[in-house]
Design a protein that fits this description.
The protein is of the alpha/beta class. A nine-stranded mixed β-sheet has the order 4-1-5-6-13-12-11-8-9, with helices on both faces. It has a two-stranded antiparallel sheet with strand order 2-3. Strands 7-10 form a two-stranded antiparallel ribbon. A hairpin with a 4-residue loop joins strand 11 and strand 12. Helix 1 crosses helix 7 and helix 2 packs across helix 3.
Length: 239
């Protein structure tokens, strides 16, 4: 039986000190996660060319929207606030085009960290540009070391994709400074951390469109067996 091919989006970076030198990068942990789940990973570079994007997407059975820099707040109707991080206009444009095309196929989508936030924004949602703008006391959501370390609990809603995998809760790592504020149209919140930060969303009218705020690929790449379940389900749905 043919293994599903899973496309993984990548970052478009400008190398400091080198004129007109750009590169495509993505953590190898994403490819390890897909392989552990039983799929075949391929990296999708940033091109911005819609015809090339269409041909690229014909090759894949499922999509991972990977983590990376902040998304330009213009996409959710806000000006830049003081604590926003680095953005990538080229990547924003490319991934919006990817979503425009790939959603037409109704094939599975997994958004991780930035990818989770992008799904929300694409469907009209908003973000906290920094967790300091969130009202109330928050947990530490940006680890300094140990990518595989489980640092906080995530409470999972009933009748959700994640409940089928983990039951009512799971412990996760955490590497982000932004979070979902207003929920995108057609989604439901399916998991939160104990401080109220949205940790996962699921599209109601899609067979598998899941956004998660933590980084399961980091945990899988360092031996966590529980987080493989997410990638196995993505691959299963892509078959």
């Amino acid at each position: 039986m043919k293994k599903p091919i899973i496309g993984i989006t990548s970052s478009h970076e400008k190398e400091n000190g080198l004129r007109n030198y750009h590169r495509t990068t993505v953590s190898i942990d994403y490819t390890k996660g897909v392989i552990a789940g039983g799929g075949i990973p391929i990296i999708i570079p940033t091109t911005g060319d819609i015809e090339i994007i269409k041909e690229q997407l014909k090759l894949i059975d499922g999509l991972v929207l990977s983590g990376g820099p902040d998304i330009n707040p213009i996409y959710y109707g806000e000006d830049f606030k003081e604590k926003i991080g680095v953005i990538s206009p080229e990547r924003d444009d490319n991934e919006i085009k990817i979503l425009n095309e790939f959603l037409k196929t109704e094939k599975p989508i997994l958004g991780i960290c930035r990818g989770h936030q992008l799904l929300n924004i694409y469907f009209g949602g908003t973000l906290y540009q920094d967790l300091s703008y969130f009202e109330g006391e928050i947990l530490k959501h940006r680890q300094d070391l140990y990518p595989e370390l489980e640092v906080h609990n995530v409470t999972i809603e009933k009748n959700s994709i994640l409940e089928k995998l983990y039951g009512s809760s799971v412990r996760t790592n955490s590497f982000h400074h932004q979070a979902i504020k207003g929920l995108g149209k057609g989604f439901k919140i399916i998991a939160k951390s104990n401080d109220g930060i949205v940790e996962a969303i699921e599209k109601i009218d899609h067979k598998f469109c899941l956004g998660i705020q933590w980084h399961p690929e980091m945990m899988v790449a360092r031996g966590n067996k529980e987080m493989i379940k997410i990638f196995k389900l993505l691959v299963e749905k892509s078959s």
